[in-house]
Each structure stands twice: as structure tokens, then as C-alpha cells.
């Protein structure tokens, strides 16, 4: 299980939740839909990064991408995505 440090406000929310003191907002379905959409937009954003690779590694990446018929940056992103999402 992952451990997260909570600030004071988050600790209070957790205590209220555990005590059953939280109440559902009006029109819950509408609020839930809006929050899910906001989460999707946030999680699907891409960021540019700079990464230093040896010439040899970059050349191998480009050759493999060409064999697979995709841009090498797409392949690199795919490899990173796959590796970071593997279950431990």
C-alpha cells in the first residue's frame, strides 16, 4: 500500500469520512461527471521533456521505430509508459 503525507485539512477530511460525518452534495451525478471529466483532461495532458541519450541508444531507438513504422519519439513515450505502468 502506498503511503501519503496528509496536510491538516486532508487529515480532518479523513477523520470526518471515517466517522461517517460527510454528506453527499446535491445533484451528485452532475458533480461526479464534471470531476471525472476534469481528471481525464488533467491526466491526458502531455509534457515535453528533455532527455540525454547516447548516440548509440538513440540510433537503436530510431531503427526500431522505423521497423515498427512509428516515429521514434512515439516509441520512446510508449516504452516509458509501458514500463511505468507495470505492476510490481
Please describe what this structure looks like.
With 88 residues, the protein is an all-alpha fold. It folds into 2 domains: 9-45, no CATH class; 49-88, no CATH class. It is built from 4 helices and no strands. The longest helix is centred in the middle third of the chain and has 16 residues, at 28-43. It is elongated and about 60 Å long.
Uncertain segments of ≥5 residues (pLDDT<50)?
none
- Count of alpha/pi helices: 4
Report how far the terminal alpha carbons are from each other: 12 Å
The whole-angstrom Rg is 21 Å
Strand residue percentage = under 5%
For the sheet with most strands, the description reads: none
Global morphology: elongated
Secondary-structure element order, N to C: HHHH
Structural category is: mainly alpha
Report mean pLDDT, rounded to a whole number. Answer: 89
Extended strand count = 0
Task: List the domain count as a whole number.
Answer: 2
Amino acid at each position: 500500500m502506498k503511503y501519503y503525507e496528509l496536510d491538516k485539512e486532508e487529515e480532518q477530511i479523513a477523520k470526518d469520512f471515517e466517522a461517517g460525518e460527510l454528506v453527499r452534495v446535491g445533484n451528485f451525478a452532475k458533480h461526479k461527471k464534471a470531476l471525472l471529466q476534469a481528471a481525464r483532461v488533467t491526466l491526458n495532458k502531455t509534457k515535453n521533456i528533455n532527455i540525454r541519450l547516447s548516440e548509440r541508444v538513440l540510433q537503436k531507438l530510431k531503427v526500431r521505430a522505423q521497423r515498427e513504422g512509428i516515429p521514434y519519439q512515439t516509441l520512446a513515450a510508449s516504452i516509458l509508459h509501458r514500463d511505468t505502468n507495470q505492476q510490481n
